[in-house]
Amino acid sequence: MSDDSTTDHQDPERLFSALWAAHAHRILAYAQRHVGPDLADEVVAETFLVAWRRLADVPGEALPWLLVVARNTVANQRRSGFRRRAVSQELARIVHLVETHPSAETSALERQTVLRALATLSPREREALLLVSWDGLAPGAAAQVAGCSPSAFAMRLSRARTRLRHASAADAPPPDEPVDHSLELQDGRA
């Protein structure tokens, strides 16, 4: 919020609070029109997080600037939703392929355990694991495909592998328990 008041420049919390008080309800109304009440709070939170991080860039006429940030946030959410649906569809396809054409060297129990564990990962973690394990990409190339830095990708891949190991171990039924071949995919968040 650009103005000549030195007090506001010295007190970013007060400046941000005033920004919130003046415009949060308008951003919420905008978000509810575009994403509905379930996701509107997330749009508002993300919009004001950007405003906090870029407080020096917020112009004196803040509402249009905040609405542009909210519009971009809505667009990002839509792209993320599309990617989540695409990953879920791809996982469903993979499950179908595995169940239709079982591998000779992999038992049905192991397949089911791995697929269930894979389904518990967040979409970003699943993508990281599949880019490296399924698509055969090196971590650097996979980071480029995932649209993140190599270090962020390495962390994502490490978390995915750890969570997959824990989920696989926790999901394995006792040896005498019959195997249920129905697998329901779970849609996790990043």
Automatic annotation (TrEMBL):
Residues 178-190 have a biased composition (Basic and acidic residues). Residues 164-190 are annotated as: Disordered. Coiled coil: none annotated. Pfam families: Sigma70_r2 (PF04542), Sigma70_r4_2 (PF08281). Residues 19-80 form the RNA polymerase sigma-70 region domain. It comes from the Bacteria. GO terms for molecular function: DNA binding; sigma factor activity. One of its GO terms (biological process) is DNA-templated transcription initiation. Belongs to the sigma-70 factor family. ECF subfamily. PANTHER family: RNA POLYMERASE ECF-TYPE SIGMA FACTO, RNA POLYMERASE SIGMA FACTOR RFAY-RELATED. This is RNA polymerase sigma-70 factor (ECF subfamily). The lineage of its organism: Bacteria, Bacillati, Actinomycetota, Actinomycetes, Micrococcales.
